């Protein structure tokens, strides 16, 4: 048989449960966002890379055709453009995806 227990109205509101209340333990959660290589598929990064790759291919084609003067001019321009573009794209990537 079941045993019943009578609770007065006053005890019901002041002591709602017979079990001692347990406080939750503090829980520390750490957040870590890993670097994703898929972030390099940004249209801006792909456009810059495509332009640089296209210029390099054009330079190789002109070299095969024997237009050495034009290839020399391309290489002089590319000596300046490649580092500027690389560091600019790197700065854009970190400024856009890391913050």
Structural commentary:
This protein is an all-alpha fold and 99 residues long. The chain is built from three helices and no strands. It is rod-shaped and about 105 Å long. The two termini are 66 Å apart. 0% of the residues are buried.
**Order of helices and strands, N to C?**
HHH
CA-based shape: rod-shaped
Strand residue percentage: under 5%
Helix content, binned percent: 55-70%
Distance between the termini: 66 Å
Which consecutive residue ranges, at least 5 long each, have pLDDT under 50? Answer: none
Class based on secondary structure composition and strand pairing: mainly alpha
Number of helices: 3
What labels would you give this structure?
99 residues, mainly alpha, 3 helices, 0% strand
Outline of the structure:
This protein is mainly α and 99 residues long. Helix content is 60%, strand content 0%. The radius of gyration is 35 Å and the shape is rod-shaped.
Q: What's the structural blueprint in terms of helices and strands?
A:
Layout lengths: L8 H6 L28 H23 L2 H30 L2
Helix pairs in contact: 2-3
